[in-house]
Amino acid sequence: MKVYYECAPCFLRQAKEAMDLACDDEDLKIKLMENVFEFLAKNYNENASSNKTGSQIHKMIKEETGCTDPYIKEKKIGNKIALKYLPMVEDLLNNNDSLENHVKIAILGNLLDFGAFELNTDIEKLIMPGLNKDLAINNTEQLEKDLKKHKNLLYLLDNTGEIVFDKLLLDKIKEYDINITLAVKEKPILNDACLEDAIEVGLDKYGKIVSIGTDTVGVVYSEISDEFREIFDNADFIISKGLGNYEGLTEVDLKGKDVYFLLCVKCSAIAKDLNLNMQDMVILKN
Q: First vs last Cα of the chain: how many Å apart?
């Protein structure tokens, strides 16, 4: 996805929050913000990729502060929130075991995002209303047809916390006798899931876990490893979780692939791109 005008202040907001999480050195943070301004002045234009631009800013902050995982505390908070609501959503699924309900719960987990929201956002207050909302775009019927048609699925994971709810959808997907490959980030960025996060919540029982080979916000095709590029290129059935993966995959030729975007609309740029409202929940086939 190309940037919208409001992406610029969002980059600055995320940069400030990442710096505050990464270090207490005020002089370093001033220098870092100068570097961010300089980077945006050179690279922010109507053709810039939104998730690639954000990825480069976060990498810059990690390198200059020496903090490899600024959001480590927020990642634990996300898991704690997800585990708190897990019994409730499991009860909902016991009462309605449909694929659509599993999809909805997985999308609801996408609210656990400390990148799209400000750090002081009360994310828990967004979860309960979400349980009662219909999907704004609902391509679940097409998903079920593709689950019956394909033998292999590439599942692009997003955030910690969210991956707890992904387990419930993966349980349902397993009923379709399909081989699953789960993709995570090579190194921490924002609160995205890495290998150890996925293993910690037991995702390894659903299929092989692979790294995209880098630490980008979502998939940036030009930066993924050769090993993952081969996996991605050969995948004809993909479930993509979250905003970053949506932003990245809309920059990729997906011809010949059945790709489903599962996300909650958490910023005005995505809302414009999909012609939806904030907090709308979506399962959209490419």
A: 13
